[in-house]
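ASSEMBLY PREDICTION REQUEST
Request ID: AP-0331
Submitted by: J.K., bench scientist
Number of chains: two
Total residues: 511
Priority: normal
Notes: Please return the full assembly, not individual chains.
Input sequences:
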Amino acid sequence: MELFQSVMVALLCCNLAYLAISRLRVLIRLTAVQGALLAAVPLLFSGSAAHGHALALSFAVFAIKGVGFPWLLARTLSRLEVNPVVEPTLGFHLSLVAGVAGLLFSLWLETRLPFPPGLFPPLLFPAALTTIFAGLTLVVARKKALTQVIGYLGAENGIFLLGTPLSGQGSVWLELSVLLDVFVAVFVMGIAIHHINKTFESIDVGRFCSLRD
Amino acid sequence: MQPLLHPLLALLLAPLLLGIINRVKARFAGRQGRPLLQTYFDLAKLLRKGAVISRTASWMFAAGPAVSLAAVCCALLLVPAGGQAATMRFTGDFMLMAYLLGLSRLALVLAALDTGSSFEGMGASREAVFSALAEPVLFLCFLCLASRSEGLSLSAMLVGPGPAFAPEGLFVPAILFVLLLAENSRLPVDDPNTHLELTMIHEVMVLDHSGPDMAAIVYGAALKLWLFCALTVGCLLPLKGMPPLAAWGVWLAAMGATAALVGVVESVMARLRLTRVPRLLGGAGGLAALALVLTLWR
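STATUS: Completed
Returned structure:
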């Protein structure tokens, strides 16, 4: 359980780093780290009695979130040849404060919600909720479309984390199909970003305001 | 004798830490490097020289280095070492330590401003800004340590409970190490070897000092480095319960290792742009806040 706690703390650190990093390439690497940490969660959660389904889920999460998505994002970034700096609409320091506030809120919320006893291991709920908050903050507080895709992935990672304690043997297939959906979504987003870059000569979503009928 | 051992060791060995850092940096660059005791030779040379003082400078210019050195020496009395309590300890002594360091910095800043040099004013301004950003992070670290210790003194925080091997317990030494780099004007925050006034922080602030005044500044900086190394090592190493001789041996080795680590960091990292230093300190602050929240939550 100590290792599980360490993974949760590492995920929390990842969330804060998401909000403080100013380089797109580092942000993509961090997505890979978060994916790898998430892959460890189903295995650690089931402990020594890890069954085949948990192994399959962990492997699929690692392959898609730890390797696939970062590779797709890095490929998109290198093809677009855009400025590799994250452009914030909300400053890095304020984003970091928002992240810590999100953590405090999730710790408070955990004490207020009537969960069945033993459903969530310690720190899983705050870590999951903070991951969702960090992802959403990245979506609204950064200008580039690529950062918004990474934010969307972060939010999805949080939802996955919330679902882990609930995933019995039957729901593993559901989780795997969601993973496939997310994979397709990121693939489509990569193509969309390419088109945005071609049309606006930038992936700054602020330029959408110049669209006219 | 035992209570005075740490201050005596600090007064004797602090300049050696600078020697270790320089030796590690030299080895990384493939050079033999300066002698380990070079800082002692420099101090002896500076003490023999006379001081050149600008006609526009007032008494503050001469008082700055002396006040700065005295404040750091007083702060050292509050820091525990080698698994033993500090020479002086009382509830809230960490506040006094932080503000003694602040007083030391203020004295140097005022002395720099007193010269009327625009370069020194620029350095003083930068030093004050970065220190102001580092201070809340230091207090967050102290809060973290205080929340898991039995008393509110540095000795209780650093000697009492031993380190928490929960993951967040390891954040505090890491953050203190970042503060060590920032407060002691080491890379990646400031380059102690730079000769370009426009990019200097600490070094540009003391450009006009010479002779014994400069010796006080160099010695004070070595003592401050020793103090931050002692804080970092103190919250990382559980030395309580060890035989005193072994504890002091392990502690001194850890101090040397921390200095070597500073040398490694300086060898493998480039200096940060001035505008990015607040982000580094902000990140350290975020991590400190996370450590505090998790410590309180447990």
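REVIEWER COMMENTS: The first helix of chain A runs from residue 2 to 20.
SIGN-OFF: pending second reviewer
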